[in-house]
Design a protein that fits this description.
The protein is of the alpha/beta class. About 40% of the residues lie in helices and about 20% in strands. It has a 6-stranded parallel sheet, sandwiched between helices. It has a 4-stranded mixed sheet with strand order 7-8-9-10, covered by helices on one side. It has a 4-stranded mixed sheet with strand order 33-34-11-35. Helix 19 runs parallel beside helix 23.
Length: about 750
């Protein structure tokens, strides 16, 4: 049996929170002994009788003697007196932490009360509770899968923080860390304000003449909303007073929101009403997804002193066992590139645009949220259906905060072009992965058009755009093939005086040009050059987004390499600028055929049927590289299963995707024992038998999904770490792949 984390824990205040802390420590073997301190002899007797603590004392000095961890769970208003009272009994190395829901005043009290022990004080706040209170309600599992926020100050000993983090983690909690002031602001907005509103609403209705009659007709919504008004008034009285400044600030923000809502109702302003409610609907759906761990988008907040650190294990791991085959009919999600563009152009159009097949992945949702933040009313998505109430080319409004693009390079680069011609300033930010990706390739030609754009260190995000700048059309020769750069320049050209044209060195996806035409905007195309004239109008339309060939690519490779496989992928987009993966796999000997070819909203689509076939290594034609740039991680797996060598050159673009895809794929191939040689612009892969191993995906969704398919031919299990961002492009991948026959488990 392992040694406990602490020899002796003292819990001061043996109510629900303190009692549950003691019970969890006991259940998980985290303490040699547990003692309680309380003013109430009866509470101490109950705690001992229930087995929550070993002993107790009404003398706080005696209670904390010999303890190496002291957990203080008393009302925030009493914290200063309690800390002063127990200080004489503290050992020199004792760590003190607390469970108070307001940190600013607690920290002030601790600084004044603990003296030389202050550096050993780790402020904390467990976000958990029940409607019942007291030690009799103590629950050893109360903190399991709940959040605990630590708010250490610059004076807090990091080693003490680490030990407090360790005990909460051992209790099954998700530990976050943030600045104390930010904690109090966040809790005021998300906890304290809702409780205040619930108390106020029930009190307001109860003060009416016959409140009994009113409550008789109250439905479930009233019950659910006001449930928290049954919370302990004494506790919330203290919280409201202790967090007064932050609560009043939150109440002012809410009052402003209520005033806007009231004005919209009074004016019968349909667009304003829908805007408020769709933004709220989307925000709550995102919150529920994060809370239920179905979405892995990281919490974020700009500013040096307001960073939130997530130490949870919410980031999933794929464990895939060897063998299996892929069969049946699999509908992959909608095309991500087109989903992005449908939101952008639909928002800038005149009228209402209906979209079918929208990809509800986090990248596309980041684009959708950005336009909501700029005042566009967007209904949905509901089962891939989105309704966009366009505001016209000049109808966007300044967002109240930086636009967060998550992991989506497409969102950031295309929006940089689109926002270069707006009248307002705006900043674009992203997650850790996106923040490493180059943005000067977009900013540079837009500056030539007259835009004022600044980027972060080494030309990376954040991207800051100065509004109100007149743009002039330019001709731009792309130095390397890039659909994102081409699209950004053309979107900037919508706001430019005169003609804007782009010539590309090799064909890239042309969804922007096609979709602009679908919205009635004239785009002239002459060979490798696309051109448009600024000042036109986009007209709303109906769009049908086909299934994404980039997502289909994993199944095309999987079915090709797994003996006995036969798979149908319906309604996949086969735009000729996107079918490089099919062309390359066919050159390798894949058995792929297109059935039921047709047109869907200006985009060619087909049902793709793929059967297992022996593959052979090839030299990949360089002219196909831009047409398969996103699919190469999957193609690398096909190469590892092919007879002979496969050589890729001219693909340096792969090094600046969500990860350095050449090197990260090479590292993964090495972990499986696949012979390969890395070039600056490509790779050589020798096919043959390979084993299992552990893969680091570096948060790159395409890396993770590609190595999942490798298991179909591996001789041992493959563990793939850091798979959170699979949700950015392919929500539900694990379930769909398992349904098709992949032996995949998510942990």
């Amino acid at each position: 049996m392992s040694e406990p984390l602490f020899n002796r824990i003292a819990v001061i205040g043996l109510g629900l929170i303190g009692g549950s802390f003691a019970a969890a420590a006991r259940k998980n073997g985290l303490a040699g002994s547990i003692v309680a301190g309380s003013r109430s002899a009866r509470t101490l007797e109950q705690g001992i009788a229930l087995g929550v603590v070993d002993e107790g004392s009404q003398d706080l000095v005696e209670a904390v003697k010999g303890a190496d961890l002291v957990f203080v769970s008393t009302p925030v208003s009493a914290m200063g007196k309690v800390l002063s009272a127990l200080k004489p009994g503290l050992s020199r190395t004792a760590i003190i932490t607390d469970g108070g829901s307001v940190k600013g005043n607690v920290i002030t009290a601790a600084r004044g009360s603990l003296g030389e022990h202050y550096s050993r004080f780790v402020p904390g706040h467990p976000i958990a509770g029940k409607e019942k209170s007291g030690v009799s309600a103590a629950d050893a599992d109360l903190y399991q899968d709940h959040r605990v926020i630590l708010t250490p100050t610059e004076d807090t000993d990091p080693a003490a923080t680490a030990r407090v983090r360790a005990i909460w983690t051992a209790m099954g909690a998700e530990v976050l860390q943030m600045a104390p002031d930010y904690h109090d602001q966040v809790l005021a907005e998300t906890s304290h304000l809702p409780h205040l509103l619930a108390f106020s609403l029930v009190d307001t209705l109860a003060r009416q003449g016959d409140s009994t009659e009113i409550f008789r007709y109250a439905a479930g919504g009233f019950r659910d909303f006001t449930r928290i008004a049954s919370s302990d008034p004494v506790m919330w009285h203290d919280i409201f007073r202790e967090n007064k400044a932050a609560l009043l600030q939150s109440l002012d923000l809410f009052s402003d929101g209520i005033a806007r809502f009231r004005q919209a109702v009074s004016d019968d302003d349909s667009d304003a009403l829908m805007g408020i409610m769709t933004r709220a609907n989307s925000a709550r759906a995102h919150f529920m997804a994060m809370n239920g761990r179905t979405s892995y988008t990281r919490a974020h907040h700009s500013g040096d002193d307001t960073t939130m650190t997530d130490s949870s294990n919410a980031n999933p791991t794929f464990v895939v066992t060897p063998g299996g085959r892929l069969t049946g009919r699999v509908r992959v999600p909608g095309d991500k590139s087109m989903s992005h563009r449908s939101i952008m152009l639909g928002s800038l159009a005149e009228g209402v645009t209906q979209v079918e097949g929208f990809l509800e992945g986090e990248d596309a949702l980041a684009t959708l949220q950005a336009f909501r933040d700029m005042g566009v009313v967007i209904e949905g998505p509901h089962n891939g259906q989105v309704t966009i109430h366009g505001v016209g080319l000049h109808g966007l409004k300044a967002p109240g905060k930086a636009l967060y693009m998550g992991n989506s390079g497409t969102s950031m680069r295309l929006l940089t072009g689109l926002l270069a011609g707006q009248a307002f300033d705006v900043e674009l930010t992203g997650d850790a992965s996106l923040s490493k990706r180059p943005m000067e390739r977009v900013a540079s030609p837009l500056r030539d058009m007259g835009a004022q754009i600044s980027t972060g260190n080494e030309g990376r995000p954040p991207v800051r755009i100065r509004g109100g700048q007149p743009l002039k059309g330019i001709h731009y020769d792309l130095p390397m093939a890039s659909a994102q750069v081409k699209s950004a320049v053309l979107l900037g050209g919508l706001y430019a005086e005169g003609e804007t044209s782009v010539t590309e060195p090799a064909p890239t996806r042309d969804h922007t040009e096609r979709m602009l035409g679908g919205f009635g905007y004239d785009v002239r195309r002459d060979g490798a050059t696309s051109a448009l004239t600024g000042g036109g109008t986009l007209t709303a339309c109906k769009l049908e987004v086909p299934a994404d060939i980039s997502s289909a690519a994993f199944f095309l490779v999987g079915a090709s390499i797994a003996e006995g496989s036969e798979l149908t992928l319906p309604h996949v987009g086969i735009n000729p600028t996107r079918t490089g993966v099919i062309d390359i796999l066919k050159l390798m000997g894949a058995d792929i055929r297109l059935e039921n070819q047709r047109d869907a909203g200006g985009e060619p689509v087909a049902d793709i049927v793929v059967k297992s076939a022996p593959l052979k290594g090839i030299e990949i034609p360089e002219e196909l590289v831009p047409l398969a740039i996103d699919e190469f991680p999957a193609i690398f797996i096909a190469a590892a299963c092919a007879e002979g060598e496969t050589v890729l050159r001219g693909a340096e673009e792969l090094r600046v995707k969500e990860s350095d895809r050449i090197q990260v794929m090479a590292d993964g191939l090495a972990a499986l024992g696949v012979d390969h040689q890395v070039f600056e612009d490509g790779i050589r892969i020798s096919g043959g038998p390979f084993g299992g191993g552990e893969i680091q995906s570096h948060g790159d969704h395409r890396i993770a999904m590609s190595f999942a398919m490798a298991s179909l031919r591996a001789s041992g299990p493959i563990t793939i770490n850091d798979c959170a961002n699979v949700a950015t492009s392919f929500p539900g991948f694990a379930q769909l792949a398992a349904h098709a026959g992949l032996n995949l488990e998510v942990k």
